[in-house]
Amino acid sequence: MRDDAVARLVDQMEIEEVLHRYCRGVDRVDAAELAACYHDDGTDDHGTFRGLGTDFARWATGGAADVWAASHHTVHNVIVEWVEPDVAHVESYVLAFNHRTPAADGSDGPVEVFAGRYLDRFERRDGRWRIQHRRALRDVDSLVERRRWAGKIPAGARRPDDGLYAADWRA
Prior knowledge:
alpha+beta; Nuclear Transport Factor 2, Chain: A; six-stranded mixed sheet; 43% strand; globular
């Protein structure tokens, strides 16, 4: 392989790592992890939120997270279009499942299923790829009945109670 092709593959892997850490930050309600996906002056347009990415991190892991008892985001079909060596336009598909907080009577709320895309401008600064601007688009959304797997598979949780933060999972 040519050196420039290998460099592009490494760049794409680094960009995809940021996308994956974004999902982890949202789902674990980890504002620091989420904010680290954006440059300090990076912006986000989620429709319901428009502003700095660092402010989005606080918004998404603060009051907005209180609506959901749990969430699960994945990104896939990542297409990178290179604009210049340190700038890339990235389209990634997102699939999210958000479990609404149970009702006051203890009954389960429905699960929101969201499929859409992120249109990102990534920039590499000081050797690190981060989101400079994100625009979220909705393609499909729905509410579905929740089915329980309780007792069959251990439940994930929010930070710091999730198994990801337990010392023994890496043993």
